[in-house]
Design a protein that fits this description.
The protein is 11% helix and 42% strand. By secondary structure, it is mainly beta. Strand 6 (106-114) and strand 7 (119-121) form a beta hairpin. The protein folds into 2 domains: 20-196, Sandwich (Jelly Rolls), CATH 2.60.120; 203-278, Immunoglobulin-like. The protein has helices spanning 2-17, 153-158, 195-202, and strands spanning 25-26, 46-48, 60-66, 76-79, 94-102, 106-114, 119-121, 125-127, 133-139, 145-147, 160-167, 179-190, 204-207, 214-219, 225-231, 237-244, 249-252, 259-267, 270-278. The strands form 4 sheets. Strands 1, 2, 3, 5, 9 and 12 form a 6-stranded antiparallel β-sheet that branches. Strands 4, 6, 7, 8, 10 and 11 form a 6-stranded antiparallel β-sheet that branches. A 4-stranded antiparallel β-sheet has the order 16-15-18-19, with no helix packed on it.
């Protein structure tokens, strides 16, 4: 009986200190909550008082990468404690967080390792250097992740032993080599999204805007191809093309007349229109 009770106690302790649940929130008000950099980085993540999205009094996590090569050169942080376990059976449908880029633009995405090997989210959100805070929403489902050295997306989402937040324009388990600084706050596991969150993860992004030579377009919330149409101020369609929703597309605008254009993107989840300025 004593042995059985001892095993039960240890099991309850293990369950209480490891693994994510809906409502898990890392807000960095007091400590780094288990986030660190791979290897012996000379510039590990630190707490940044008053730098959070709420302004004075709001602490967030700050992480710098040096670029070049060697320890600390890549933009990535990792967690092997509360962001592990079975994301699918725990009902976690999205992970969302606030992010800010400084020094250089960053493409925020999530990667994991676990029972099925290393995987990375297909979707990402770009933070423009000096552009303020952006909301990042990552759907947690088999369709939104791809293997990057692993073999089974579902196997890792069912049994994750590490989660990473990183910057890379392509699905990856390692951060890009870049000299930049990222700020992260309010990492949260949720089962449903509010209207504001849904707009973030189901629309598209244009950058830079305004632009003179090219614009980059990224579609969120779909894994199918997207139809892109561009209209001038008179309503004349000047461009129509199909792009992959899994990759960032670059569109040449150097021959367009200066002015305002409407860019409409249509996917299997609906359509959205944004204004673009050619200068």
């Amino acid at each position: 009986m004593k042995r059985t009770l001892l095993i039960l106690v240890f099991s309850l302790i293990f369950i209480s200190v490891s693994g994510q649940t809906v409502g898990q929130l890392d807000d960095f008000d007091g400590d780094l909550q288990g986030w660190f950099e791979p290897g012996a980085s000379p510039n590990p993540p630190v707490l940044a008082p008053d730098e959070g999205p709420a302004g004075p009094g709001d602490t967030c996590m700050e992480d710098a990468s040096s670029g070049g090569g060697g320890p600390g050169s890549r933009m990535v942080v990792r967690n092997v404690s509360q962001w592990t376990g079975n994301f699918l059976s725990n009902g976690i449908n999205y992970i969302k967080f606030d992010a800010r880029a400084e020094v250089a633009d960053l493409d925020f995405r999530i990667a994991m390792d676990g029972g099925g090997g290393r995987i990375s989210s297909n979707n990402f959100v770009t933070g423009t250097a000096g552009g303020g805070w952006v909301s990042v929403v990552i759907p947690i489902n088999v369709g939104n992740f791809t293997t990057v050295g692993g073999s089974d997306v579902a196997g890792t989402l069912d049994d994750a032993n590490e989660m990473r937040i990183l910057s890379n324009p392509n699905p990856s388990y390692i951060g890009e080599t870049i000299a930049a600084v990222m700020y992260i706050d309010n990492i949260e596991a949720v089962d449903t999204l509010g209207d504001e969150d849904f707009e973030v993860q189901s629309g598209f992004q244009l950058r830079p805007n305004p632009a003179s030579s090219y614009m980059k377009l990224r579609v969120y919330g779909s894994t199918a191809n997207a139809q892109v149409e561009v209209f001038d101020v008179l309503g004349k369609r000047i461009m129509s093309k199909t792009v992959s929703a899994l990759e960032e597309s670059q569109i040449d605008v150097s021959n367009w007349n200066d002015g305002i254009y409407l860019v409409r993107v249509t996917t299997d989840t609906g359509s959205d229109t944004k204004r673009f300025i050619k200068q």
